[in-house]
Known about the structure:
Structural class: alpha+beta
Shape: globular
Largest sheet: 5 strands, mixed
Amino acid sequence: MHAIVRPFRKRDQDAVVELSLRAWAPVFASIEGVLGDSGVYARMHPDWRSDQERAVREACDTAGMHVWVAELDTVVAGFVAARLDQQEKLGEVYMIAVDPDHQGGGIGGLLTSQALRWFTDNGMALAMVETGGDPGHAPARRTYERAGFVQMPISRYFKKL
Length: 161
């Protein structure tokens, strides 16, 4: 099967939300595992599914955010949301997800390439994407590294009060 990338349409929103929740379930499980029994995960993500659904819907509806979907035989298999910071000349891959049934087939790379082309076409000098350092984000990190991104290690610490 060959995926095509096309602009997001409002009718894609439910499919994008559903695939995102499936794609991010192992990521949130990984984050929970990393944070352990500290109480931090429960405080940060008491209902991650509702929070992520809201975040995806907002990304799809936000002015200035550009969203594309990857489609395989009329099935939405992934999406990417990206935005520009004209002042900084920085393009940001804001959100990206690939349905678990279609992961490992290059769709993440195809969506990342779409965002990078859009950044270049709009005169951006840099591209940025942020992801976690936990095991659940390892596939995302591989996709970004294959696309030529350079990792900037950052440590972020949390403590439940």
